[in-house]
Amino acid sequence: MALIHLPDRAFITLEGEDAEAFLQNLITTNIDGLAPGEAWPGALLTPQGKIMFDFLISRGPAGFLIETHAGDQAALAKRLMLYKLRAKVTIGTPAHDGVTAIVGEDTIPDSAVADRRFSLSDVALFRLPDRLDGAADDPETYTALRIEAGAAEMHADFAAEDAFPHDVLFDRNGGLNFRKGCYVGQEVVSRMQHRGTARRRLVRLEASEPFNTDQGTVEAGGKYAGSLGSVSGHAAMAIVRIDRIAAAAGDVSVGGLPVSVTPYAWSGVSLEPTGAEPE
């Protein structure tokens, strides 16, 4: 079992008799399906359907716990307050020393939650507020695990208000639900789902030598296909135009370095050519 301290993570609590309904009508995750002991991905969208804030959400002792990037904590809490109106919800920003990621299944504390994003790739990773004794500051290992699992995170893999939930596979990993009621941005992402117009997808890249993060443009057949996200040695992930990747028939590179492109097995994304490339 490995313990990794993630100092750039912070929390928001939501408590009160209206907390569940408030979140269900606001964020992309289906709160009704959230079981105790699990952390599911989710987002608060712009009205245009872009990800304004991404996070993990779990049930806490008296409500819900949102884990997000530490730099987004204050802005996300403020945004939630704007939507609160008369709802009986108390929104808090508790102080924690980041998060401890627990890799493996030996001696897991009762209060830790399983990160669903990793379990889809059969990686056992649990999360717990604060720094556990023995937790090391090892962002490189955590990045490598995220690349292996396909767990994209804002700031590392995409910018705020620059990606749709489909781009980061939220429609496949539980971060996006199409059967619950309306929420902010729901009309746009539902239209993308039903029309099948999501062409940008998160994939894994692999090269014969380490990636140069200063050369982050993914090209397919000489055309722009996306931007490099998180990097770990010879492996990386990126949000790419899958139609252009498919049409390039293996001619894909990053900064002139040839790369192989592999969809995440759990995502169901295919790189089979589908005909003429849409503009």
Automatic annotation (TrEMBL):
This protein's UniProt keywords: Transit peptide
Pfam families on file: Beta-barrel_CAF17_C
Source organism: Martelella lutilitoris
Record NCBIfam families: ygfZ_signature
Protein name (database record): Folate-binding protein YgfZ
GO terms classed as biological process: iron-sulfur cluster assembly
InterPro entries xref list: CAF17_C, TrmE/GcvT-like, YgfZ/GCV_T_CS, YgfZ/GcvT
Domain CAF17 C-terminal, residue spans: 199-267
Classification via SUPFAM superfamilies: Folate-binding domain
